[in-house]
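Continuing from the previous page of notes. For each protein in this section, the sequence appears first, followed by its structure tokens. Read the first protein now.
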Amino acid sequence: MSKKIILGIESSCDDTSAAVISDGYILSNIVSNQKVHQQFGGVVPELASRAHQQNIIPVVDTAIKNAGVNKEDLSAICFTQGPGLLGSLLVGSSFAKSFALGMNIPIIAVNHMQGHIMAHFIKEKGNEIKSPKFPFLCLTVSGGHTQIVLVKSFEDMTVIGETLDDAAGEAFDKSAKILGLPYPGGPLIDKFGKHGNKHKFIFGKHKVGELNFSYSGIKTSILRVIEKGIEENDNFIENNIEDLCASIQHTIVDILIKKIMKASKEKGINQIAIAGGVSANSYLRTRLLELKEKYNKEVYIPKFEYCTDNAAMIAISGYYKFLDNNFSNQSITPKSRLYL
């Protein structure tokens, strides 16, 4: 039986990425970052789409060459349909559709959030990676999303809890901006927070019922504490940067942990996975491993390179859709809002 070789393309935000997977095993995963947004303190959609247009061909070409295959070997091409920035999505989807049409092979549309979850099923030759068994709960946390997903199969995923306003990743980035840290600020809060006292500053927490989240009020509380501190001491942030970062990080992550524990108890599921950009946060990873030790939970944490936006997660999603004959047609269009 011939190998199933899938090319994945990811362009939902500001990273242009292409990956090749063969029968579930990763052969290449290329990511081109866009530095142009740093001076603006956040992603500028128009600049992002233009950068994707410049990067898409060399990134795809490099992914195919690094995989050691030829374009004629590809079984299908999959791409991120959404959610994301529409201009960025258009570049990836248009390229994927054109390439597939020229090669006369199928195209497969992938939900970006499903891709993050499916990152747990990427295989690496010579490196055994333990994947979660169905059903499991996945805490999917990024700059634009915060969700608890009940995963029953590769295609059966149900959101059972989500943010009602801002995402946890956005709370990290906005807090970093308040502290005067450069974009992207989330990793810097993680860095400084490692050496700080997480109980030094107390911030207000949301009181949202069920399994949902809310981070808008937390951002306001963080802003008020910092403004008050600056009123009393002009060097407040500089003198307390490590404790502030540790306290902010603890507040944001503590809510995530309590909600996923609540979901685990309610659903009777002890398999817990994390996904999305914030899953690279070291404090979140530490807290999850504590669940494994204290409460006998099965915890699954993806490798760092599969946490942030990457095409490997799109390719593995496309691979399982290929096996299920779940193809798309040339009339499919990207969507800035796309739900699981």
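Done with the first. The second protein uses the same format. Note its length before scrolling.
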Amino acid sequence: MKKQNIYILAIESSCDDTSAAVMCNNKKLSNVVATQKIHEEFGGVVPELASRAHQQNIVPVIHQALAMANIDKKLVSAIAFTRGPGLMGSLLVGTSFAKSLALGLNVPLIEVNHMQAHILAHFISEDNYDPPAFPFLALTISGGHTQIVLVRGYFDMEILGETLDDAVGEAFDKSAKILGLPYPGGPLVDKYAQLGNPKAFKFPKPKVQGLDFSFSGLKTSILYFIQRETKENPDFIKENIEDVCASIQYTITGILMDKLKKAVKQTGIKQVAIGGGVSANSGIRKALQEAETTMGWKTYIPKFEYCTDNAAMIGIVGYLKYLEGNFTNQSITAKARYVIQ
């Protein structure tokens, strides 16, 4: 008897990207992302503008995802959506739409934790990619989060360490802002860093106990360094942008790797996976790849498509929850703060 396919329509709206995806079991049929350009002129995400843009984008994005997947909405088995964490206004748009669509199609509703989805994105079926076996360590790095998570099963996760202040994505973006680079600055720091000397300038690493992180002190030291150097030479940034970016990236990567090494030593687990928007950073990816040789780790790095916010990662969690019959009801509400359970 042929196994019946499960089609999950997934919606992601936690920040400033509106995304919809269609999954057939654990395979991605479509993954559409509408990026909001309006925030660039403000140097960061403006929550009110983000939620308005989601309202404009959500219908065409879902329509396009269904069209690309070449399936009728009547075939959809369930609707999965990001419940949190994220910007409340943005989450409300996705949550409300998902609830209405599930009601209209008379299909189950599945709520998804955004950070859990970044980790489980590794289980989207892709050619030439084998997902990690349990247990493994996950480093989730994004604009709003920095966490080391012990993953024992799909829905058995424990946060071992997290940031006490700024997230690593903020450290990149705020450093870029100090250098006068436009928003979003993180990818630009990465771009310049690839052309510079990572040991040109030395920045201090914060001394934080255990497996927790701190990036606010690093950001402040970068600010004071730039102020001091530009006072002596007004063209300092222009003349040294590549070396400064390379040195910042080298320092941040070093902070992440030091904590990961500590986590591997404490747990004895040498399988390490990364997820979240900052996992697209070339310096961090390279450091992890090198750890396979130098540390004897087995590292798992997702496709760029699954690093930034996207609905396919919401869809794979939806599929795994569907198999367990783990559905929610129409009384569900968005949660701006939503800790991995």
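What the second structure shows: The chain has two domains: 7-121+308-324, 130-302. Residues 130-302 form a domain with the Nucleotidyltransferase; domain 5 fold (CATH 3.30.420.40). We return to this in next week's lecture.
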